[in-house]
Hints:
This protein has one domain (about 15-555): Purple Acid Phosphatase, chain A, domain 2. Helix 1 runs antiparallel to helix 3 (about 205-225). The protein is built from nine helices and 25 strands. Helix 3 (about 205-225) links the parallel strand 10 (about 160-165) and strand 11 (about 230-235). It is an alpha+beta fold. Strands 1, 10, 11, 12, 22, 23, 24 and 25 form an eight-stranded mixed β-sheet that branches. Strands 13-14-15-16-18-17-19 form a seven-stranded mixed β-sheet. The chain binds fe (ii) ion (FE2). Fe (ii) ion binds near residues 234, 235, 272 and 394.
Amino acid sequence: MRSDRPRGPAASPSRRAPFWRGGGALPCILLAVATLAGVGGAARAAEESQAFRVRPYLQNPAPDAMTIRWFSASPDAGTLRINEQTLTSKPVPCPELDYQGPEPEDLRHAATPFRHSIRVTGLEPATSYPYSVEQNGETIKAILTTSPRPGAVGKGGGVRLFFYADSETQPESREARTAWLPSISLPGGPRPRWVKGRYPADETTGYRTNLALIAARAAESLRAGNPVLASVVGDLVANGGEQRDWDEFWRHNAGGFGTLAARVPIVAAIGDQEMCGGPTSDDPLADLGGFSGPASLLGSRKFLAYFEHPENGAADKRHVGRYHRIDFGPVTLLTLDTTNGGADDGPDDTNQLLDSRTAAHVPDWAPGSEQFRWLERELADAKQRGAITFVQCHHPPFSSGVHGQPPGTGKGFDEHSGQPLRALLPLLREHGVRAVFSGHDDLYEHSIADGVHFYVVGNGGDGLPTPQEGVVNERQIFVAHDHAAEHWKGNALEQGGKHYGHVEVDVRQVAAGPGFTVTITPVHILPILSPEAPGEIVTWERREYDDVLSFDVGGAPPAPVDEAPATKEPVP
Length: 572
Ligand SMILES: [Fe+2]
């Protein structure tokens, strides 16, 4: 989240990875992506489907089931074909996905969309199934892959997960090049003058290229027999109450800009931006509510309309889907809702702008709360099962960004501080949590506290800020700004610097026995700049920050391998 504006553009050397097997095909793919996105909104109309408001995407993965969801413009039923079955959808109108009054007319779809959601059951674990969805005469084909059984891996011997946060999509990002300041404490540079403190690509291109790389790496993993899960750790959109921002998010993930979510199930944590209606105004016709109770409710309803997350047993059914557990082979991923925990305006309040009396739809996360007790139970269960446990929550307990300031208002404080989340540390340590993934600050940062690794992966596709002046994160071991100095050669950046990216997690079964090797790799996309034409991006490359973490998890019970049968016959 950026705190400077309610809606954007609101507010050690990197190392080359030996990834380019196949003669550099991926850079070409990424160049094509960047070129398309670079034309901005002009490309949008031609790429959009008439039948699908959101193209088919995967939700709630399980070893024997998967949900396939899409949104249509018409109330007509659609057809899903998979595994020799033909299933008909039951369209549900979603008025919560209508536009708010002040949203521009030229960015609106014509009518209220209809949701189609089909839970396909009876599937085999870690197995790929071609499927097709037909809606109003348009047919889309893709392949889904189920999860391995708990404790098991795919036939390639592993699973792969991706984490990123803060895509903060909005149509305005197509024209926005974010602020981009170099570290001045390390040798490197010198930057050419044309940079002028702005990133060479716009935010839309950055996010789109980041997703294209995730899609390519996911495809590689799936072809090798290793199932894939992708997670967005909050602040998916710039403003949760503005429908055009959600349209843009799905355009990237299941639309004209990209279709990663058709092949890889995506899971999400809710962030504070999903709880922001949009800018406030003295003019009631232009007021989108900011972080008020009604505005946060509208944003929450849009979030919940799109995502199907596993049942969490919450007493208040409005809290179902906001925090959840997903088992993905040897991994248990616990997702928290940290958007308004603690007592109002107190030292544990993660949203100083939201009055809990108007936000009963938001579950508390603080110690003693229902969500906290759920976390305790799930952590204990995961530990007992020998799972590799990851936790994700939008607010980072440890960060050197603006949200690393203590909670409060005024200079030196933050209204959406992540610091209160440090209250979870004893619980995380006690239950052997391996890593916590967060966003909120648009940084890549890695910290260690009491043996638990904390990642900030907020460089998904929006800002690329510097650490906040005056904030010292004493647990930090790597932050891209300070540990990846830029190295320029004329107009070209050879390595280093702050870039859009994600974290890739590979879990591989140890060949010689029980247990797994976990590798957590911070990845960024490096714009390869023309030596001759200042600022012209020739292509993009996958690079890794020099902060790769690898560890073995022993003592787990022997991990059976899900012998995935051959991919089913294609859908006719
Ligand atoms: Fe945020």
